[in-house]
Amino acid sequence: MKTEMKNNGSSLILFWFDSLNIRLLQIILVSITAVVCWQVFSRYVLAEPSSITEELSRFLLIWLTVLGSAYAYRKRSHLGLDIIYNQGTRLQRRIMHIMIHTSVALFAFFVMILGGIRLVLMTYELGQKSAVMGIDIGLVYIVLPISGLLILIYALNFIFSSAENLEDAL
């Protein structure tokens, strides 16, 4: 199911999004590791467990998971069932490819972006704050529309590259 990307302006934008996402994921991974290590150290060595670390590590894990799913989708490292796909002809595979990525794009737009924005706005309207750190929960949930936007951009790239290849096959 891999398609070659053409070397144009959109590839440069995708490269920029990929680089930014990778750096953010690296920062989050290092941060969550440091936070959990501090929690273990403060609990067992200092006998004074930090109250912030559990909540912070949970929020970082949410961001790591949701942004990581966008990166996995971009690199095609996500789970997928390809039993039917592998049995199709080349033309059928390309059509299925477009349908699959169109479904992903619709999910990303309606559920992750629009639903995520509604969730963030609702938490701000209700004034929801985290129990220990006192930060707005909307800051935690803002990762949904961000990741949804990345997935939508990646899905549209897959769709358009498949559509170009489909025209060549006809």
Description of the structure:
By secondary structure, the protein is mostly helical. 78% of the residues lie in helices and 0% in strands. It is built from six helices and no strands. It has helices spanning 9-44, 52-74, 83-87, 90-126, 137-141, 143-169. α1 runs antiparallel to α2 (52-74), α2 packs parallel to α6 (143-169) and α4 (90-126) runs antiparallel to α6 (143-169). The longest helix has 37 residues, at 90-126. Residues 1-7 have low confidence and may be disordered.
Helical content class: over 70%
Radius of gyration: 20 Å
Number of helices: 6
Which residues sit in consecutive blocks of at least 5 with pLDDT less than 50? 1-7
SSE arrangement, N to C: HHHHHH
User: End-to-end span in angstroms?
Assistant: 18 Å
Tell me what portion of residues adopts beta-strand conformation. Answer: under 5%
How much is the average pLDDT? 89
Number of strands: 0
**Largest sheet: number of strands, sense, barrel closure:** none
Q: In a few lines, what is going on in this structure?
A:
The chain is mostly helical. It has helices at 9-44, 52-74, 83-87, 90-126, 137-141, 143-169.
